[in-house]
Each structure stands twice: as structure tokens, then as C-alpha cells.
Design a protein that fits this description.
This protein is 15% helix and 43% strand.
């Protein structure tokens, strides 16, 4: 009769990583099982290949656990099936072999070499609606990501290039960053990558490009005519106070704030306030509805929201550039 075999075998795999770089430096295989230390034998097979002998270190007596040494996983960033088996050998008899469940293990590829010779060349600066063009060149035997760092310090991935390519023409990069129509500094960089990790990001020297003017607010005809006035809350209260020089400022402010609070209170409770020649403040209710998402129906309850409708006099007066009453607008 064969001697008793190891039992209750549970294997596990863990990536060993450098605590500073977070790069994988090795593979660790551990197994929990009941065994006799002097009789235990371990072998492992990778991807269905031949079994090879492995050593082990005891890492726990309760529960009994060992670290298995000698399993060499290819450092290719791919997954590999690892089968571990164990048996006892007392020198005269062998036990039955026991197998752990197949483990899926991988060993990350080493970081690719940093790209070299990274150079950014301006082919064309922005001229009105004609966008800028920049040629970026580099030397690398790997696939690369191309990045743009705008004048605000925001980095964007703007291209992916294969290992067979060594240059790219980037167009309209000044749509990023400050868009005020003036010259700003831009940096372009290249980072090599493989299926596991990246190289360092290597930047070319800065180039200076004329930014888009998309964020520049053009003056309106009212701005040009000098009739447009942009009034803050404080400025409006100061104007209101000046209209009533014989009334205390605190009283004017209290009346104004009180009137606004009354409007908000009425609307918050579902009502409305109509101001002649101005408009209607009101509450609007949405209908209850049902939404279907990911196989589940969810009831969206009815909800109240604030609404304001300008009066006909207000709207027509703005169109004509003058103050009008509703009666005048509807005449």
C-alpha cells in the first residue's frame, strides 16, 4: 500500500514588486498543504511543458504553508499556465501525486529603453484659421505615445506611433492651453511602451507657437457703441441707493433683499410672482417617469424647479434696445 500523499493543496501566485519603482522583480508561488517535510517532493510545469523539480521553504507551520522555488516564468508580459504537483517519498515508497489547481502567472517585461533624439520642429505657425504644424522626430525600437504639454502645464496624449515610425506631424496643437492669440511655449515628448510598462517620457526642447484666439471674447455692437454696462450686485445696490438720497441705505437694502426673498419663498412653495412689464417667477413640476438601465427599472419622482418667463415688453424692448411696457409691446 502506498504511503499517504500530501493533502489539501491550495496554491497561489503573487507578483513581487520593487517598493519604489513598482516594477515587477519576480514571481512568488506559495502553497498551503498538509505534508511531511522530509518526504515532500514538488514539481511544476509551465504551459503544459515537462515537469521540473522545485525546492521549497517552510513559511508557516500553522496553517502549514511553503514557498516554492525554481519556477521560472518567462519575462514576456504574457500569462502562463502553471501546474504544481506534490508527492511523498520515504525512500522506499512513493505516494500518489496530488495536483493544485492551475495558476495563471505572468512576469512583466522590463521597461523599454528611453527614446533618444527627440526633436520638435515648427513647420508652420498658426495664422488666423490656418492651424500650426509641428514635426516631432525620435529614435526608438518600440511603440511610442506622443504627448503635448501646453503652457498651462496640462499633458495630453496626442498620438500613438508604431515601432516602425520615427516621426509624426502634429497639427493644431495650439487649440490646447491658453487661447488668447499670443505666443506661448509648448513641449512635445515621446514615451516608449511595451505590453507591461513604459519608459521615461522624454521631451524635446520647447517650441513657441501662436495660440488660438478662440477664448478671446469679441466686443458686441453694444460694447463698441459704449451702451453696454455690466453691473455687479454691489454696484446695482449702490445705484438703487443713489435714487433715494433721503432714505437710509440700510432701509433700501432691507427692502430690496426682502422683496427678493419673498419671491424666492413663494416660488419655493410652488407658487408664482408676476411683475408687470418684467416677467413671471414660477415653480414648474416635472412628471414622474420610469428609467430603464442595466436591466433595472428606476422610478424618478416628480420634482420642482425654478422658472422665469420674461414679459413681452421686456423681450421686445431688449430686441429694440429700449425700455418698453407690455402694453407698448402688444400694441
Amino acid at each position: 500500500m502506498a504511503i499517504e500523499a500530501p493533502s489539501a493543496i491550495i496554491a497561489s501566485f503573487k507578483k513581487i514588486k520593487d517598493p519604489f519603482s513598482n516594477l515587477q522583480t519576480g514571481c512568488e508561488f506559495t502553497t498551503r498543504l498538509s505534508f511531511v517535510e522530509t518526504q515532500l517532493n514538488i514539481q511544476a510545469s509551465i504551459d503544459g511543458g515537462a515537469y521540473v523539480d522545485c525546492g521549497f521553504d517552510i513559511i508557516s507551520n500553522y496553517p502549514p504553508a511553503i514557498r516554492i522555488n525554481g519556477i521560472v516564468v518567462p519575462q514576456d508580459g504574457l500569462t502562463h499556465a502553471v501546474q504544481i504537483k506534490a508527492w511523498h517519498d520515504d525512500g522506499s515508497e512513493l505516494s500518489d501525486e496530488v495536483f493544485a489547481d492551475v495558476l495563471v502567472a505572468s512576469f512583466d517585461m522590463a521597461p523599454p529603453p528611453d527614446p533618444t533624439g527627440v526633436i520638435a520642429t515648427i513647420l508652420r505657425d498658426r495664422d488666423g484659421v490656418v492651424p500650426d504644424q509641428v514635426r516631432l522626430t525620435w529614435v526608438s525600437d518600440e511603440d511610442v505615445d506622443v504627448y503635448c504639454l501646453d503652457d498651462q502645464g496640462k499633458k495630453r496624449n496626442v498620438a500613438k506611433m508604431s515601432e516602425s515610425e520615427s516621426s509624426v506631424i502634429l497639427e493644431d496643437m495650439t487649440r490646447y492651453g491658453t487661447r488668447d492669440g499670443t505666443v506661448h511655449s509648448y513641449r512635445f515628448g515621446v514615451q516608449a511602451y511595451n505590453r507591461s510598462t513604459n519608459s521615461s517620457l522624454i521631451y524635446a526642447d520647447p517650441v513657441y507657437l501662436t495660440a488660438s484666439s478662440a477664448d478671446v471674447v469679441e466686443p458686441t455692437p453694444d460694447d463698441i457703441a459704449g451702451t453696454a454696462v455690466y453691473t455687479s450686485h454691489g454696484q446695482f445696490l449702490a445705484w438703487l441707493d443713489a435714487q433715494f438720497p433721503l432714505v437710509d441705505t440700510a432701509q433700501i437694502t432691507a427692502i430690496w433683499i426682502g422683496a427678493l426673498d419673498k419671491i424666492k419663498d413663494v416660488v419655493a412653495k410652488g407658487g408664482s410672482v408676476t411683475l408687470s412689464d418684467f416677467g413671471i417667477f414660477s415653480a414648474k413640476w416635472s412628471d414622474e417617469r420610469t428609467r430603464y438601465s442595466n436591466g433595472t427599472y428606476t422610478v424618478i419622482p416628480a420634482s420642482r424647479s425654478a422658472n422665469f418667463d420674461f414679459s413681452s415688453g421686456f423681450k421686445k424692448g431688449v430686441t429694440l434696445g429700449q425700455v418698453m411696457t407690455d402694453t407698448e409691446a402688444n400694441a
